[in-house]
Amino acid sequence: MADTKVYRASTTAPVNIAVVKYWGKRDPKLNLPTNSSLSVTLSQADLRTLTTASCSAAYPAPEGDSLLLNGEPSDVSGARTQACFRELRARRAALEAADPSLPKLSTMPLRLVSENNFPTAAGLASSAAGFAAFVRAIANLYELPASPSELSLIARQGSGSACRSLFGGYVAWRMGSAPDGSDSRADQVAPASHWPEMRALILVASAAKKGVSSTSGMQQTVATSGLFRERITTVVPENMDKMEKAIAARDFAAFAEVTMRDSNSFHATCADTYPPIFYMNDVSRAAIRAVEAVNAAAGRTVAAYTFDAGPNAVIYYLEQDTAAVVGTFYHLLGGLDGWKADSLKGAQSAVALDEAV
Ligand code: ADP
Ligand code: DP6
Ligand code: CO
Prior knowledge:
Blueprint: E1 7-14, E2 16-20, E3 25-27, E4 32-33, E5 37-41, E6 48-55, E7 66-69, E8 72-74, H1 79-98, E9 110-116, H2 126-141, H3 148-158, E10 170-173, E11 186-190, E12 198-203, H4 214-224, H5 227-248, H6 252-271, H7 282-298, E13 303-307, E14 313-318, H8 322-334, H9 341-345, E15 348-351
The chain binds adenosine-5'-diphosphate (ADP), ligand DP6 and cobalt (II) ion.
């Protein structure tokens, strides 16, 4: 009798916000970066993608694989999504070849249903949580004995930043040097418990979809920016080194300086792209000034800003400085144009780190 069963598995994946940013591909096909990067994984209790993968021989074959993203059909024909399907199917097919009693899931159409509980394509790492969840949901469905490191290798091909969302805590994506990309994957630099006081304040200036996607923006930067060369040869290697030392020593002032400098450097290369790309706006810049004011008022560094490819701010601080940071920040931003009351309501305070592996 034909197998008409529907096989199903679900997973969630966290957002990660880089403190040393990935920006640039040396191989767009394999999605290999021009530089290593380092991020902090945020708690899934606040921001997460929830993805369910299912497959069945009863799904009409001509429909092929599909993805419903936030309730809307989403294109899966792109080379990077296809690469994830291909890699995962090949691993499942190898299991099925070794054990003929296993159901032939690798031959069935896949349906994915995914939801982000935060703005999509707005510079809050939706592609990171999204592709990490995408890959892990299918790996769970296929019962693959894959480690987070191996899954990070696959997720990287969906979206670079996604390779870091397979780990909790403090995570590095090593750029690697192998032409086939087999050493370009993420690893955990330190678990969240190493420095558990770290918090992130997320300020949503705009939940709108960005005008220039990360994929397209970084390719324009690689092609046209002179400053970018300096960033990948000198600035980032130094920042990676300083950041790993700051995390090892739990030195917040050093962590904060590298975080802010690296964000500034990344946005400078965007401004040096021709024609220039502007992800930050006046509201973003007001948040930078507010962080400076918070630090000046405290007489030491208690807060660090960083901006991904979008206008929204992520402010890192330590739990013991919550009053100085969150209190002062809300007070300052409440009086600034642009951060309207409703955007402050959308702000999420005290997002802790995620331990999940
Ligand atoms: P962001 O700054 O949010 O990461 P990007 O430009 O890097 O923005 O990527 C946004 C794209 O990532 C979306 O247009 C979509 O194609 C993909 N994406 C976002 N969330 C998911 C998800 N949950 N599952 C699959 N793909 C997703
Ligand atoms: C600014 O990982 O979204 O957030 O690999 O093309 O999908 P693709 O790009 P993506 O780029 C992230 C850029 C960044 C910095 C970072 O997360 O390291
Ligand atoms: Co992204």
